[in-house]
User: Fold this.
Amino acid sequence: MTEKRVVILGLESSCDETAAAVVANGRQVLASVVASQVDLHRQFGGVVPEIAARAHIENITPVLRETLAEAKLDHNAVDAIAVAYCPGLTPALLISVTAAKTLAWAWGKPLIGVNHIHSHLQSVMLEHAEEVFPAVALVVSGGHTSLYDCRSPVELKLIGRTLDDAAGEAFDKVAMILGLPYPGGPSVEKCGASGDPKAIDFPRTYLGPDSLDFSFSGIKTAVLYHCRGQNMLGENRTASMSEREKADICASFQKAVVDVLVKKTLRAAEQCAANTVLLGGGVAFNNCLRERLERACEKAGKRLVIASKKYCTDNAAMIAGLAYYKYIRGDFADLTLEPVASQK
Ligand code: KG4
Ligand code: ZN
Assistant:
């Protein structure tokens, strides 16, 4: 007997991407559309929540139409509507949460609320057919740096998190200090490509021999002091810095962040006796992190599964993917679902 195919429409607007996707059985992506707002926020050097929300309002209907057309489905073929309701920027989340509730009500479909950070792990599974659980997972995004002990897509135990800045946030702030364009992560990686990662010995914060938590505000401040002097009263040298000097700062900063991420992830895998390591989230786009974690896992005899680059940054395929596992558990939301800014 063949199992019924479950088709889920997912929506995502937690930050500066308006996204919709249709995914069958949690892994088969029938359509995935992402409208980026990078150009809108570039002039401000970061995401402005109210501007993001207004752009989501304009984008959500065309993105939705394009997604259903790409999937060659009409809404009758959709079994449920899923939406990322936390964590994120509240005004931004509100747009897709409202759209999802409206569609669920109008089309008479069940509604599923999904944690955006948990769904970054599902992005690992979208192009990976094999079973990956149990595993330890690192999610590195703009707002979160989290380690999970994972038994299944919906059985995740948070075992480590950042106490201050997230890894992506540190990349974004360092880009800002150096006057590199938003979004900062890709700019820092690009600028650092020609730099010497050993040029500057920026501090690594490990928080003790067993800790699985992270802290990246110290390294961000170290970059700031390096550029502006210890008392911040010195000349801001960034404008007159050579490309070579900026490249060395970026490469050294990136190496320090990656050193900590890799060490803590392997530490978590040891502590949880996990043989598989998963990596997802926007910072997982970074080649230095991908390569270094790959080498470390190989050395430690662990299997590493990384989200493919197109699903590292925010998208709705991961939302619809994770929602499938909630669907088969009957874990539905009702129309009182509200956006929640912080991680639950
Ligand atoms: O997961 P994501 O798309 O959005 C959030 O949920 O936050 O992650 C965005 C973060 C940003 O901080 C961005 O600078 C970072 O991912 N990022 C990178 C790279 N590409 C994106 N960080 C380092 N290297 C990259 N290549
Ligand atoms: Zn994200």
About this structure: The chain has two domains: 7-124+312-329, 130-215+248-307. Residues 130-215+248-307 form a domain with the Nucleotidyltransferase; domain 5 fold (CATH 3.30.420.40). The two ends are 38 Å apart (CA to CA).
